[in-house]
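Now produce a polypeptide, keeping tokens residue-aligned:
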Amino acid sequence: MIGQLDFAALWPHWPELLAGLWITIQLTLVATIGGVGLGILGAALRSGRPSLLSRLWGLYVEVIRNTPFVVQLFFIVFGLPNMGLKLTAGEAALLAMLINLGAYSTEIIRAGIQVTPKGQWEAGRVLGLSRTQTFIRIVLPPSLQRIYPALVSQCIIVMLGSSVVSQVSYEELTFAANLIQSRTFLSFEVYLVTTLIYLALSVAMRQLLLAAGRKWFGGARG
């Protein structure tokens, strides 16, 4: 069995894999920035006084956290057009990843905010800062530092989940692997190489984000 493996036959298809990898990296980068931004906004809303908006955000979080990512993606791709909102495969993939990470990061960041001593809020008032200024300047930085490794892990999970968008014919890494396999029938070789690429991407992403965390916070560790 091992002697029949033919990794050399994959060489002509490397441009397709690299093109798919580049799309995966782009998706991940935009989804990470946007999803964490949504998470910060949602955590701020859910950590404040109860309001209609905070309750609606809580409903969004519960819906996303309790449904499969593939169902969320299919709803955006096939459900929204029935409501008059038509998106390309790339736009739908990015929106699905943003919404998914936004929900999970909301709860992760909120957990960090909830353990913030009340004295920090009071210190902001003493300094004459508004509640928003206190949140951004005093409360948010240490809260992010506490939950940063968990947030990094969630971002990596979303990156790995991007493989699902191949189901809507978006040409990322898994789509490229499936296409190459259908042409060459080298299933073991193609998916082993793809697995190693995802593994390398995950490790590199974790190390880069944790290094950035050490620079930003001076103590985020994984």
